[in-house]
Amino acid sequence: MKCLKVDEYIRRTASVEETELLLQELKSYVKSPPGLQGRTLCDRVIRACNHHLGAGSPDSDHVGHLVQLVEVSLHGYDVSAAVVAQSTPLYMEKIIFHIVKKLSSLEAQSLCSHVAGLLYSRLTPPQQAEDYCVLVRSCFSVLWNGLSATKDRKIVNPRDKLHCQMQALSFLLLLDAESASTPISKAPIYTEDAITEFESSCGAMTKDDADFLLQEMRALFKRCWTGSEGCNGDTPKQSAETSGLYVLSEMVLIVLKVLCKAGHYDQASTLVNEIESRIRDHADCRCTVAVLGKWAVKIHSTMKAGGESGQALTECARALRSLPAVLGDQEAHAVLEGCGLVVWAVESGHSKGLSGSVLLAWFSFLEEHQERILKMLKKNLTGQAEGGRLQQALCFSIYQGFVFAYESMLASQLEDGDTLDRVLLYCQATAGQMMTELRKLSSENFLVKAVIAVSNLACGLYNRRLYDQAFTLVEILCRDLCKSCPASLSVDRLSRPFMLAVQTSRRAGQLERALDWVILWLKALGDKITTHMAEPVSLWVKTKTDAARNSEEDVRLRTLHDGFGPDVPDERVMLCLLEEELRAYKEVAGDTAQERYNTLCDLLDICHEESTHTHLRAVYLCEMAQVVCYQDFSEQTDCTAVDFVHEALRLLEEEAETPENADRLKDDKAHALLWLYICTLEKNLQEAIERDKKQRELREQMRCVSNPIGTNDFDYEDKQKTQDSIQVYEGLHFNLGAENKLCKPLERALDEWSALLQCRALPSLRNPKQTCSSVAPLKALEAYQLAIGLSRHLADAHGSASSLCQSASILLDMGTPELALAQLEQAEKFLASDCTAEGPSSLSMMAILLKAQYCYSTGQVDLGVPYLCDVLKEVNEQRQSKSWYLLRARTLQICSSYLGLDTAALPQVQRGSITQHGIKSSDTALYESLKLLCSLLLTLVGKGLYGSNGGSSDVRFIDQGDNLVMKWQLLSELLNCSVKMVAVRSNCGAINDARLQCLEALKLAIKLQALSRCAELLVIKAELELMQGEREESGIDLDKVRNLLELCTDFSDQRMSFKGILSTRWSAKEPVVRDLASSPPLKAQPRRWLSSLAHDSDCQCPCCSEPCLGRATARWATTQADLVLQLDPNEARVSFKLQWATLARCKSVSAKLGAKLAKLFPPCGSAKGFTKPALMQDLVGRVYLRMALFGLEPRHEKICGIWKILEAGLAFVESTPSPVLRPIKAGLIATKAIVSLVTLAAKKGCTPEELFSDVWTWNAPKVDEELKSEQKRCHRPKTKPDPCLLPPDAPRNHVSKWSLATRVTQKPIHRQSPKKSTDVPKKRTTTRRAAQNSKTAPDPPAEKIPPKRQTRAKKSTALARVTSSDDDETLGG
Predict the structure, then answer these.
(1) What's phi and psi for 1067, nearest 5 deg?
(2) Contacts of 73 (CB under 8 A, 6+ apart)
(3) Rounded distance between C-alpha atoms, residue 37 and residue 40, angstroms
(4) Where is this region: Disordered (predicted)?
(5) What's the whole-model pTM score?
(6) Span 59-66, mean pLDDT?
(7) With 90 as the cut, is the pLDDT of residue 1330 above it?
């Protein structure tokens, strides 16, 4: 075969056919020895093929033939080269490289791989020439990049691609094996990329895929390392071979990881065993990497199966310890990769916390692992990227220890004390190292994770009550964070370890250390201190509370200002911290008055008189008043609570109002005004308690001196009664004028808040929730509406519902159930939207109870009983809460109202559903309620305020949380319950018990200086005195009421019209003293009425416009009418006019109240068109009944039109659905029946008794002489019946028997016989005793009333008690 020029060969290979002919010709030529020119011929043919591969885009057949021609030519070239040596090194290898490159560009991967294999065989064994390295590196780049270019086009299937990539890696391994001084090989990195791509393309790796991967790995291992006889010695070749072995080992580790992830543990074990065996058989080298890989496979498979791997981890640690201190770079790197595989196996294989033994083995391995990484880092021979990777591996290894320790603790695997101590010893030893090493990383993400891990472990120790161990661990972390806090660490994650440091110190009893850590915590917050100070300050306060409980006064008295020492923050920050400390003290369930005082002193030191913080100073002075108000600080300050408030108000008045501070200024003024009222009230209350205590002690001393032996005193009851009355009268040091002056700050506060809160937008308030709770004690209904609006702005569903329920309660007491129902419906909506409560809350039960009260007020008793029973069921359960106790007391009062109904209104079945809860009667319910309220009061404020237990008490009122509101709610409820108790006891005939209860309530009202309550209770006392015949004491009580309501009261602006009864200077006509031997008798002083009774109907003075005072004046008038009639029956006209004045007053007060309510609650929804308030309905009914009974008296026939009164009274009670008036209705119907009988008897000309003579056998009683004389007097012809009494068709004769019947049925009038009118009336000394002992005692001689008259009087008195049930429902304060 001739040797042609290259161009000729290019022409002969231009087509497939010609290339095929040349191929056959060349094959024949190569079979025989080609001779000297054979090398040149083959070289030119290869060049011609290279030309065509790069000239264009030949078809695949042509490329295939060209590759065959190259292979044959290359064989001929090598045969010829054996005869003649190659002059240029790597000459032909470079040509073949270009062919590989062009085949790669043509994407003929199979042919490219084939030619690359030819090239690889020519490049082995590795050489050290520079051209060689360049050529090998170029070969790898062409092959790897060519495969990467086909990645998206999916020309090669995953297995072929992996094969080609492994082939490319063969060239890279040649480059690594060329010199032992090369840096760390990148072959494992490329291997991981290739295998990861293969894994992802397979989806779920099957067994066939795993077998293929093993086959490729075996081929690569065999191709790249055949194994030498030994690795001893220090020759470069031996070092290079050893280095390549470690690179191959790293590549095997990558394959093992993929196989373990897919669960092909058998294939993985087979591979690693083969590699270990080949290393041991063919080289005297360490096979530590293979050992680590083998144990990693074992660990992963065991943990996935739920087994223990402690022994395997121990073996891994032992393998690492067996290594020499100094290792080659590549070997050290491979060992670390083996350790990394073990770490991965443990991390991904475990599904639960490690047991104690396994965890300790794991820590042992981690220690060896970390030591190897540190040694590698100390050499500082690796690049920056590799150094960063090693640093991260070191941090991760330490971090893993904390993660696994926490998980094992959660899984309760560390119950053994010795094991736990060893675990904690490791964690404490590595915590500081971890934080130090983490600072060397460029990213802070790992540092954040480490903080979380250490905090979690410390939290786990804290939960196991290992406080000292937890503190030791978290202290290391916190001190590092104090030095430098990473910017990426959130405030919550920063605060958590500091919180643990404080809490562990608290629980360990190291309270001073806990306070120190709070200060460090606040300093660590840096510029975020004011926005995240709540939690550390809260723990500061709790720690000081612990100190107070332990009597550690030095710790207790420290303030935050003291805690910072000389390193105090700036003034703005310090003010924020101290304000937060003060706010936290208020939320503590205990006495923190001293702590609050100290904090306020620090605040006032900053906001001193010369400072610019005058507004803040006023606020803090008001806060100081709240502290000093309830505790004696006389040893620390000369100022009283009232002094502090006055100074605060002065500063606030001087403060200039700007658009920025306008809202807060009004809010703070209102707060100060409110507390001026409260402090004044509390001061007066305390003075009253002290005065009462001194008087009690004085009376005890006097009693012991006057009666040292304690002999029997038959006048004891009268003396006690007189003493009680004197005690009550001595306390009446106030009047309407004084109350108006006392309440002026309250009125101004309400005006300020009304102006501030009536706008739709939420104003800028210092503390909106505090303002909301402060508004409530003001004028009830107006204040509650403001509180409701503010709560809505704050999205406070609970606060809104609470204010709505309180408003509904007041409206029910005022007799406007329609308005109350509208408030309740809104409250139910808010309660339904509040999902924070678990189970029924006291507020939700209060709403249901108010529903029951609404049903009672509207006469829907059948609907109200289920509501009442639901509440009874809940309140009977044991709930240790003041709000639940108060709710139970209120529930018992509603029970009393229901049980007080007759059987027609409350059938037996429904009554039984109430009594099954243990409440059997109305009296019992009120008694239990009163006991509960007294117990609550004693718990909250101590002794001396109510009842006879006036001794000293260790209990002192603490102004904390809702205690202040609870205190006044409790006092109001106590007075309400007392009034109801008085009504029930008096109605059932226990007048003495009712009077005693009234006295106790009156004493409380006097201490509270509750003028309207005092007035009403004094009137009730007057009624009770009158029922017992004590007319003089009754008159004194009514005079005291008049003094309360009129003394020092200026009514000059009112038009006073003293007409009718007020124009009469009435005085009692019976003489005070009558003695035959004495001078003419002295006349009684003229009786004076309440001037407000003569005011115009549109008068707006307190007695005419305020509902409670209006009710008291009306009740005063009707009681005065009864007293007038009993003192002098001839003054019937005056009494009758007083009754009419009562009706007029009731109508006027109800109309004014209705107008105010209509303005406060504009008609809308269910409240549209509500009826007028029924506040006075019981008084109106009672007046009608008394006037009807009054009309039965024959002497009053010209004064009283009884039929009109009966019709009006019955019409009134029929128009009112409330069951309160059912007794009144019964009385009116009975009176009407009596009048009808008398009228019928008058028509028939007989006595009323004779009307029934035909239907039963009845013997007329014997009539004594006095009765006969009266009958004769009544039968005089000139006496005629009252036309108002008889119906229009009644005859106008036969009046004598009518008069007798009237006398029998009328209410008794106590008067003296004309013959004995000169006797001086004596006090009855046995009245109380008779009531207590239920025995009948003779009347005093001065009375001399015949026995039969006394019998009638008893019957009539009983009737009067039954028909005057007017105190069942009264307005609450």
Answers:
(1) -145, 155
(2) 26, 42, 43, 45, 46, 49
(3) 5
(4) 1269-1373
(5) 0.73
(6) 86
(7) no
